[in-house]
């Protein structure tokens, strides 16, 4: 890269806004999973939207590709540079201002670099609630959440990140700024530009600010752990609880017995609340601003399905400590997978009515074609999102890992497509699923996406090699 460009970038963001040392660049050039590592001549760290716009104008003038980056906690390689050494990383980690909290309008306006945990904290301080919750909430940023349309554990009640944002501020590839920070719940004045940039993975522009929805803070929770014989029973349980508990049903997580066994074996202190063997488990949580009667409602609802034989057993948390222990068992699955082997991961979504049939079909197909490979199946069943993973031995060779990954991806994703599902539910496409996209999206969909990309980024400078 020309020294002149770096000099001009320093003039915009100051010397403290540039990371030039190779060792200091390490956290920026490698994704947190360690799957992708690239090179960059410079990491640029603007302090505000004006500086982001100036950086983009300089990069466009010089034809320099830009990789936008938030917390760099993505699962699909969408924020890592390639190994050409020609791509500038534009990190928003200095843009951490909470611009406004409006408890009357139930909104919060923030910089894109604000950590998700800090947004949650600011909402609590204002007596409100921001429901997006992820395992990486202490290190992921709102901009990254928006760029990938992150999901999390509360999608069932509150929706994805797309549903939690009312307005955006975006710097376009040519340096112009779209100021769409409107805290409106109704605005029929043209195309939904907000929705266009959410989930675009930094390929159309750089989200620099957002107006987020806030909610009344839940004052009570009721949590239960359930054992059942099959995925079909779990899906039926979801339907019954939705009918009996309504919007109080906040979370509904499913995991196979193998997931529970893995966590108990590899995560210290993990205990299953139920005795006996249950092929499938569910973690259920109710919440409400009026806490009275929640445990009783959950107990009555589960008693009815127990009487009907839909589930085999259930345990209701009698304290916050017991509830945290149940969540620890669910949240320990990812850690346990890492310790047990190398997982081939599938972040898939299906219509809830087709989940059970997919699991049965996929289990049978993989048992026949990939004998002996354990399946680690868990997910947010309330929104149709499964993490249908296959565990390979820790000592598998790189060649065998690559070969099995390609074969497993094709088999699982073909079955997902046949049942009207998606090969990426909440992790994004990035590099990981980019080359598979054409197989599972129609030619018309791909053409429309490419037309939008060319219209907004004709020089192909925004996050090249990702998504498209």
TrEMBL record:
UniProt domain FAD-binding PCMH-type: residue ranges: 36-217
Species this protein is from: Bordetella genomosp. 11
Keywords: FAD, Flavoprotein, Oxidoreductase
GO molecular function: FAD binding; oxidoreductase activity
PANTHER family in the record: BLL6224 PROTEIN (PTHR43716:SF2), D-2-HYDROXYGLUTARATE DEHYDROGENASE, MITOCHONDRIAL (PTHR43716)
Taxonomic superkingdom: Bacteria
Protein name: Hydroxyacid dehydrogenase
Gene3D superfamilies: 3.30.465.10, 3.30.70.2190, 3.30.70.2740, Uridine Diphospho-n-acetylenolpyruvylglucosamine Reductase, domain 2, Vanillyl-alcohol Oxidase, Chain A, domain 4
GO BP: respiratory electron transport chain
Cofactor: FAD
Similarity-based family: Belongs to the FAD-binding oxidoreductase/transferase type 4 family.
